[in-house]
Amino acid sequence: MQHDSRVGLLYALAGFAVLSVGDGVIKTLAGEWSPVAVAALRFSLAAVGLGAMLLAREGLAAMTGVLRWAQVGRGLALAVSSTIFFTSLFVLPLATATAIGFTSPMFTALFAAVLLGERLRRETWIASALALVGVMIVLRPNLAEAGLWAVLPLFSAMTFALLIIGNRHVAGQGSGLAMQFAVAVFAAPVLIIAAPLFGQTGLPRFALTWPDWTVVARCAFVAVTASAAHWLVYLGTTRAGAAKVAPMMYVQLLVASLIGWAWFGDHPDAFTLIGSLLIVLAGLYLWRAGEVKEPAESD
User: Fold this and answer.
1) Domain limits at 77?
2) Could you tell me if residue 298 is inside a domain?
3) What b/e sequence results for 43-81 when a residue is b if at least 16 CB atoms lie within 10 Å of its CB, and e otherwise?
4) pTM exceeds 0.85 for this model
5) Which residues have CB under 8 Å from 29's CB, separation 6+?
6) Does 194 fall in a domain?
């Protein structure tokens, strides 16, 4: 049993680390293609690949069984969250966007109180206040450089919290693979429609052009690695339990910091490091208080 738990934690660590690698690849696409189009292609490829795997492993009944209205909200939440997060990666250091994204557990607890009627505990308010202070410290230099674009990861965390709540609602409706397929198959068409609409805004950042083959290859890489990472986290959760796996998500920040430093030359100042630490501490405090029941999934 103890061996299974350790193996599960290793699975989860690997999964969360791989997610940050995918985010790093997304950041290389800055200025090359619209972030909405990147998200659309990433989830379209994932939907096809996951659908094929699900059909082969569990049959047609498993594919159609998860195509329910309750899954639409999950797909919409992930589509919005991913688009916002990908856009933030184009304008912010990788570690900064990742750190602010870790406010999602706090938003999950707050939204659960409003949407699910769960009791809002004192610990939730304390963790949320601590995370807010951390976010303000992290945003201090980035607001001056990126303007209001710097707050995008905060909105991404909010919409991602809605996905986590949706995950609770549909728990038990299918396997982990089926749940991944469901969210991708509903997110993809939303993003396919949104990409040309964003292109009509006239903002160069969202201009929709025919992508270079390297752009398609990188989107495919992210689709494969993200799906593999989610599967590793799922395996880790089944072996070690959600409570033990949840803190492992913070390895993403370490990997993101290393990638940002080595790949993009990002060198966070002391205030950014302090703010990031406060956000992580808020998440760990909330986990210890028993509010965080499941690990986050990434975009």
Assistant:
1) 2-288
2) no
3) bbbbbebbbeebeeebeeebbeebeeeebbbbbbbbbbb
4) yes
5) 35, 38, 90, 215, 218, 219
6) yes
Is residue 142, in this structure, part of any structural domain at all? Answer: yes
What does residue 291 show for φ and ψ, rounded to 5 degrees?
-85, -35
Which pLDDT tens digits describe the chain residue by residue (299 residues)?
566 778 888 999 999 999 999 999 999 999 999 999 999 999 999 999 999 999 999 999 998 888 888 889 999 999 999 999 999 999 899 999 999 999 998 999 898 888 888 888 888 899 999 999 999 999 887 777 777 788 999 999 999 999 988 888 887 888 889 999 999 999 999 999 999 999 999 999 999 999 999 999 999 999 999 999 988 988 888 888 777 787 888 999 999 999 999 999 998 888 889 999 999 999 999 888 875 544 444 45
Residues 6+ apart with CB under 8 A from 243: 287, 293
Task: Give Cα separations from 294 to 45, 77, 113, 199, 240 (angstroms).
Answer: 26, 17, 16, 36, 12
Structure tokens given for 129:
């206040």
**How many structural domains does the chain have?**
1
**294 is a domain residue:** no
Give the Cα separation of 118 and 110 in Å (integer).
9
Both structure tokens of 81: 């969250």
